[in-house]
Amino acid sequence: MMLLLILLLAAPPLAAQNWTIYGANLASQRFSPLKQINASNVSRLAVNWVYQPRVEGHYEATPLFEDGILYFTGPAGHAFAVDARTGRSLWHYHRPIPEHLRLCCGPVNRGMALAGERLFLATIDAHVLALDKKTGHLIWDTEMADYKAGYSATAAPLLVKDKVIVGIAGAEMGTRGFIDAYYIDTGKRAWRFWTIAAPGEPGGETWTGDAWSRGGGSSWVTGSYDPQLNLVYWGVGNPGPDLNGSARPGDNLYSDCVVALDADTGKLKWYYQYTPHDTHDWDGVNEPILADVTIDGVPRKILLEANRNGFIYGIDRQEGKPIWGKPFVKTTWAEKLDASGRPLVKPGTDPTPEGVEACPGLGGGKNWNHAAYNPQTGLFYVPSAEECEIFYSSDAPRMEGAQWLGSVNESVPNSKRTGALRAFDARDGRLVWEFKTIHPHRGSVLTTGGDLVFAGDGQGYLTAFHARTGKVLWNFQLGSGVSAPAMTYEMDGRQYIAVIAGTALFTFALPQ
After folding, report:
1. Please, which residues have CB within 8 angstroms of residue 311's CB and are 6 or more apart in sequence?
2. CA-CA distance, 483 to 503, in Å (whole number)?
3. How much is the pLDDT for 393?
């Protein structure tokens, strides 16, 4: 065990040909420097092979690649290893899940992390596991929380030094959220950061009565890590109940925040709250993307996020202060951000018993589907949704064993829902190009050193765009909507693109 720990701590930077971490790198950029497939030849891209796991359900995972093998997860406790040359199944792990799980959004899983000879994943019944990557056999299994209380876990872990860091889900069930770190070699918990502040803790004054104890604040999308600052950045979701703010007066920290935590201790360094006292279910969980850019001649370490609340942000990731922030979709609930970064909320936009229309809708200007940042172009690529909804207020009581949204929302009659893939300048949030779609864009993004951006969409297309101009260079119909993120890898001197659509894993390469 000690040898494994030493090797992990001394590990070199991620090799360009591999993809061993959910967001491609610790900065969650979803950028690969591979460029064999590029803007001049991507039009020749063709299917290499297709693998059908024969497990039904909704797939949201990013495959991982190392040493000729692809690893990915499926719904309801399944994980797979596939020969990357042929698509032949190598092993299939299945963890039986309990009956009567209390879930918000289905038994989904977004993937694993890989280090040394081990794979790490979280499970829908709120466990974190280590598997042997060669056999799929279980090495250790640690319970994060009691699924009977409404907890679950869907996010891919993040590996930082000797720890595996994992988020939790369950805010819709009246739980209190957290972010955990476990030792890689043993599975023993190293630290926990509670995402909802209790009385007597910093931020506890932003809750009233005992509302904090069921305050939500899930952490269901994978975070990022800056090794120079030794800070983990993680998004925190909506407060509970989602839509009824009268049950929880105050700003409700640290819901709808990005938090910066000391990687060794889990202690809070800083936070930034995107949506104080959220009443529209605009989770702040979206992936924090780290970038180093020069603004007005000054090098800056920034954090980029396109939030569900309709604003896009560039935040100083050392201090937690916004550098810039602006709407990136139609946004009616707030004018702009004030000098401190707090949104200036427009009167009359909170839910009422009669219903109030607000934009974006409950799904947000961008949901969990991932954005990407390309350090060669300096552009931030964001899947965007243009939609509004009617939000109602009510005093729906909490019922044990049921979702506790506190109210309801509905579509605006005869409204048009559209979307776009948009590219923004990371220095100031300026829109550089956009590709409009007839439906809200809920696909994830990959960008590469070949001046390319790949994005799936709900119509079933995987499309390659020129990273600098947005020109469409290639697309392929996969036969099912694509919400899972694509990735790329190199094997035997050949670059591949891999993505899951429906219940199938597709790989693509240039013809030989």
Report:
1. 274, 325, 326, 327, 328, 331, 334, 337, 343, 365
2. 11
3. 83
Helices (H) and strands (E) in the chain, counts: 1, 38
Write the DSSP string, 12-48: PSPPTT-B-STTSSTT---EE---SS-TTTGGG-EEE
Answer whether 150's CB lies under 8 Å from 130's CB: no
**Per-residue pLDDT at 5:** 42
**CA–CA distance, 16 with 490 (Å, rounded to integer):** 8
Residue in 281, 350, 451, 457 annotated catalytic: 281
What contacts 367, CB < 8 A, 6 or more positions away?
286, 308, 385, 442
Strand, coil or helix: what is 111? coil
Count CB neighbours of 353 within 10 A.
10
**Spatial CB neighbours of 153, under 8 Å, sequence gap ≥ 6:** 122, 123, 124, 126, 127, 128, 144, 166, 167, 168, 169, 220
Token pair recorded at residue 176: 């209190």
Looking at residue 398, its amino acid is R
For the stretch 410-422, pLDDT in tens is 888 888 899 999 9
Reported as a single tens digit per residue, the pLDDT across 21-61 is: 999 999 999 999 999 999 999 999 999 999 999 899 999 99
Q: Return the pLDDT at 110.
A: 96
Model pTM score: 0.95
- Amino acid in the structure at residue 10: A
**In DSSP terms, which residues pair with 64 in a beta bridge?**
71
- Mean pLDDT along residues 239-265: 94
Q: What does the alpha-carbon distance between residue 180 and residue 143 come to, in Å, rounded to a whole number? A: 11
Report the alpha-carbon distance of residue 9 to residue 3 in Å, rounded: 10
pLDDT at 10: 39
Query: Is there a catalytic annotation at residue 281?
Result: yes
The first and second tokens of residue 471, run together, are 């020109």
